[in-house]
Design goal:
4-stranded antiparallel sheet; 3 helices
Amino acid sequence: MVEDHILTEQELQAALAGLPGWEVRDGWLRRTYHTPGWTHTMLLANTIAYLAEAAWHHPDLSLGYAQVTVKLQTHRVRSITDSDVELATRIDEVVLWKPAGGALGGFPKKWIH
């Protein structure tokens, strides 16, 4: 098991600079993703769950009709650690991906943001 490194305020601010759309509120690293609607909300939630399970690091999720809020905190230390930042980065990489040309055209309407 990797030892938890609780981020200092300075480290947290540096991490946030590389995580547009994420914020720290009430001791959690959080972001709300907006979706085109219910089906995409469920696809997004399941994608995040898959990534979290693969990482063995589990966020709190709140779902609405067209949104998913992700809250990350290392539960065993009740603080934000490197693990939370790394998972947030991976979540963004996967769920915000959209083809930029080539054989894959991409979803024709507004995508997750």
